[in-house]
Each structure stands twice: as C-alpha cells, then as structure tokens.
Design brief:
Strand order of the largest sheet: 1-2-3-4-5
Strand content: 25-35%
Largest sheet: 5 strands, parallel
Number of helices: 7
Radius of gyration: 21 Å
Oligomer: single chain
Shape: globular
Distance between the termini: 49 Å
Number of strands: 14
CATH architecture of the domain at 169-276: Sandwich
CATH class of the domain at 169-276: Mainly Beta
Length: about 280
C-alpha cells in the first residue's frame, strides 16, 4: 500500500471482498467466533495505520455489494457502494432506502448511462446517483455528443449540490419504498432548500408529501434533466403537497428538483402555484 500511494500516486482505493469467511478461525483462538472478532479488529487496526500514514487517501467500502455496510468500517472509509445492482431500472429503491443506514455524503449510488438506453431511462439512471456520492459508470466512451452533454450536466448539478450533503437531512415524500413501487422519491433537506428526486415506473402523476414546507410559498426548479420534456407541477401549501405529472406516462423516467421555501403563505386552504417545470 505504501508503494502504491507514495511511489505510484494512487489516491483512491476500492476495497471489496466477495468471499464469505464463515464462522471464523479457531487457530490461536478460544472459538471460531473469537477468531473472527480478532480478524475483524486486526482489519480495523490495519485501516487506521494506513490512514495515519496517508491521510489524503480515499477509501471506498465496496464490501461485497454493501453486505458489510457498518460504521466500524465507515468511521474509517469515506464512502460506501450501496449495491452491486446493475439494472438501472431496479436501483432506485436501493438509493432511496440507503440514507436509513448510511450518511448521504457516504452513500455511493451507481449511475449506468449506456449508449443503447432510451432517453428517459438514460436520465433515470443518472438521477439515481445524484442525491448521494455519485458513482458514474457505463460506456461513456461510446456515447454520442448529446448524451455526453447530458452526463456533463448531471455531473455539474451534482457538484453544485454536494456541498449541502454533509448537513442534509433525508426525507421520504412517498415513504420508504417497496421493491415494486410505481413511484419512488427521496429528498435531502438543508435549511430552506430541499432537493427532491422522483422516479416514475408507472402511473400518470404522484403527490409528494413535504410537511416541513406546509404553509410556505415555494419555488420549484428542475435541475436535471433539462433537455427532456418538462413535468408539470402543482403546489398545495395547505397540505404541503407537490403533485408532479410527467408528459409521458409510458416509460421509466425521473427528475431532480430543487424546492426553495419562501415566506409563509397567507392562505393555505387551496392549491397553490403550478405550471411546467422548465
């Protein structure tokens, strides 16, 4: 490790391990459990000494597809791969659930923009990586110019919002997801700004519950994607509810919004402002 970092300039290491160690060793141990615990503690001491020598080294806890996503490791490593899931249509429930067990700034969700994906699914998979530690994969080298621009837009948006991640509090406008839910949503609240991502699998509209914004005027801005048809939105300040409607209801799609709270609304009994999100 010292040679990799000091001599070869490696600054990022992905630490993975896809073998089940079993109950543990009983060599020089009272029991297999004691041997496994000693092995675990030796691993943590190794990480501590490594980071003492190389404090700028970034360590990813891939950990066999997040099967060892615990804070004994994450108190030492900067980010956690949340899954080995490779189907972009199946990843959103994982990304939405991740902040229940890992800090947003450590939750590394994979985005797989592939050349053959339809436009909406292409944006769908990039949105999956936005509200966390963006992991960008896929065959970027094969993308046509307009798709590369879309990827650059996504990276730019993520860079703009990532400074808020360390202090953001997650919210779930549709509750915690089930695997086959037709709509999914995750929000990150930081002061008067709430970033909300919405994934559509089926259905023509959905109402997002944002009770922390009840009674407030809000500005709703679309952050990504901006090169696809706009979704309409209607804000109900009395209910603290934002209803969003895609233009197309026949394909998986997703949008990332920034919702900025303004002053309290003088009347909260009816629907508020609405229109196309552009």
């Amino acid at each position: 490790m010292d040679r990799l970092v000091a001599d070869l300039g490696v600054g990022y290491l992905k630490l993975d391990y896809n073998v089940d160690p079993g109950a543990g060793t009983d060599v020089a141990a009272d029991s297999p459990g004691a041997g496994l615990l000693a092995h675990n503690r030796a691993h943590l001491r190794w990480l501590d000494r490594l980071l003492d020598r190389h404090p700028d080294l970034v360590l990813e806890n891939c950990a066999s597809g997040a099967m060892r996503m615990d804070y004994a490791l994450l108190s030492r490593m900067q980010l956690q791969s949340t899954s080995d899931q490779q189907d972009p249509a199946r990843y959103p429930p994982i990304a939405v659930s991740a902040p229940m067990s890992v800090l947003p700034e450590q939750a590394a969700n994979w985005a797989y923009p592939q050349p053959d994906l339809p436009d909406e699914l292409f944006a769908h998979t990039l949105c999956t990586g936005m509200l966390g530690r963006l992991y960008l994969s896929g065959r970027l080298d094969l993308l046509r110019p307009d798709r590369l621009r879309s990827v650059r837009d996504a990276v730019r948006v993520h860079r703009d919002l990532r400074a808020d991640l360390a202090g953001a509090v997650p919210v779930w406008p549709l509750g915690l997801p089930r695997w086959d839910d037709p709509w999914l949503s995750l929000g990150l609240r930081s002061g008067d700004v709430t970033h909300v991502c919405v994934w559509r699998r089926d259905g023509d509209h959905v109402a997002l519950s944002l009770p922390h914004l009840r009674g407030r005027h809000v500005d709703v801005d679309l952050l990504y994607p901006r090169d696809l048809p706009a979704w309409t939105h209607v804000w109900d300040p009395g209910a603290g509810s934002l209803t969003v409607t895609p233009v197309r209801a026949d394909t998986p799609s997703a949008r990332l919004f920034r919702i900025t709270a303004g002053p309290a609304s003088p009347a909260t009994g009816g629907a508020g402002t609405g229109g196309a999100v552009e």
